[in-house]
Design goal:
With 218 residues, the chain is an alpha/beta fold. The protein is built from six helices and nine strands. The chain starts with 8 loop residues before the first strand and ends in a 6-residue tail after the last helix. The model has no long low-confidence stretch (mean pLDDT 89).
């Protein structure tokens, strides 16, 4: 954000932390570099939320810890399980390709992407380079996936599927992900056809992952 020493504002620093200037306090660290919630876009969201909280009367000295430990909301880059050195992420609320691009930019290392679903007149072509960030792509069946497949083929990007069930997609992703990988459901499409809605999709994904490892669904 744009700010100066004489008016309130905040800015992200190169290390990912956020500094703010607040009247009567001068320059403070709004939140540290290490956060619970992943994603550059989420740092910007936290910066705006922190300033809004301060404007509403929150204690600025306590904001840093609260923002750093905020886990995010369900179905939005939700890291819900770590098993066998693999991190599982539920980003079912990502119903447009732009959200998939943001998700892929939020993690490093091997990323296995479970994506695709039902189309809602979306254009995948402007964001086609984002799919190159995924090391493994597992497709869920659907009309949106039917539009995405020719783009992946044209760009020489390999994929597995399309899968007719979330359980099949999870098994494929797990089998093709090395230790240290992040396996992420980020569909970039609607859920209708295979699921009731994006929330049902996310809940069923999480339950199926836990069942894959032989643990209780919730």
């Amino acid at each position: 954000g744009q700010w100066s020493e004489d008016r309130p504002g905040a800015s992200l620093l190169p290390d990912g932390s956020c500094q703010a200037v607040l009247p009567g306090l001068g320059r403070i660290e709004l939140f540290p570099a290490q956060l619970t919630m992943p994603g550059e876009h989420n740092r910007r969201n936290l910066m705006a939320a922190g300033l809004a909280a301060w404007a509403a009367g929150a204690d600025p000295q306590r904001l840093g810890k609260a923002l750093a430990e905020f886990p995010g909301v369900e179905h939005r880059l939700e890291v819900f399980l770590k098993r066998n050195d693999v991190r599982w992420v539920n980003d079912s609320a990502a119903t447009v390709p732009e959200a998939v691009a943001a998700a892929l930019g939020s993690f490093t290392g091997h990323i296995s992407l479970i994506t695709g679903g039902t189309d809602k007149n979306l254009d995948y072509k402007p964001l086609r380079s984002a799919y190159k960030r995924a090391n493994t792509i597992v497709l869920l069946a659907g009309s949106g996936t039917d539009k995405l497949i020719p783009i992946l083929k044209e760009d020489g990007i390999g994929y597995l599927g399309p899968c007719s069930s979330i359980e099949e997609a999870i098994a494929l992703a797990a089998q093709h992900s090395p230790p240290g990988a992040t396996i992420m459901l980020s569909p970039g499409a609607t859920s209708f056809g295979m699921f009731k809605n994006e929330f049902d999709r996310g809940l069923r994904f999480k339950a199926a992952v836990r069942s894959y490892y032989g643990t209780a669904p919730y």
